[in-house]
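Per reviewer request, we include the raw input and output of the structure prediction for the construct analysed in the revised manuscript.
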Amino acid sequence: MPDQPQAQPARDVPRGRLDRLPPQSFFLVSAIFHYLGPSLAVLLFARIDVLGVAWLRIASAAVVLALWRRPWRLIGQLDTGERWNLLALGLVLAIMNSAFYLAVDRLPLSTVGAIEFLGTVILAAAGTRTRRNTGALVLTTAGVVTITSIRITGQPLGFVFAFANCALFMLYIVLGHRMANAGRGAAPAGIDRLTGAMLIAAVIATPWGLSGALLAFAHPIWLLAGAGVGVCSSVIPYVSDQLAMARLPRATFSLMLALLPVFATIIGAIVLRQVPTVQDAAGITLVVLGVAIHQQERKQSGLRTAGIGRAEGIPDLPGHDELRQPGRTRLAP
């Protein structure tokens, strides 16, 4: 029947329990494991070469994700642009994870986390459209500067790796967000693409990482610990990122990354006994306030961008949401 309403695209139809959770919840899971895994990895540095630990993280994550998602079924469905994006993300993941571990081997975890945030400031600023969000950006930046200001100590080479990781983390956000939204917002498609990128990263990192990891194969406990780092550092955070990126604008996701230095400080204190100071606590407070302000603005602007209150003559029934978009011709009575 021609007058029957058409089915909504996949991205507009609830897909299960995960869709009932706010996207911020996925980000919080990602933030916790983003630094919990590296904190555990630092404990392995005394036994395994740093780049060897990085390779164990990447390779074990690739194996776990591949067994779960079987991404080879997806390759034939990708166009040329999506394949290049997959390759680029794999390259970024391989170098970024290696640079990150080389940095945390030389600097406090909170310092590396704060430097990592600098790139996200640029991405968040690029998406700032309101005074409230500008204020949120100022507060979060001030908070990170407060946390970082007393930590500028360590090996100069560590800062080279930390800033390299910062630049690559920006690319990870851009490429990851593009990947999360490539499958019409379908979370499984984004995770399948992520799995393909992790397999590529494992291959790329093998020349500089495998030799340092060989010692772990003679010690099952070390090998199991390395696999645990991969699950905590890559599988859980990156999958959570895909779930959050599929539902959050890139600028919002980037600003929420201001919480990463906060989690780095807290986890560094718990796992590595890098005790925070009063100044650190003040910085954490500023960051939390900034993120809270931005979230409030997002809730208010969400009603405006959805067009609620502006559409006229459109029944409030399922199947008519696609008509509530700016530029649509008003329906005849």
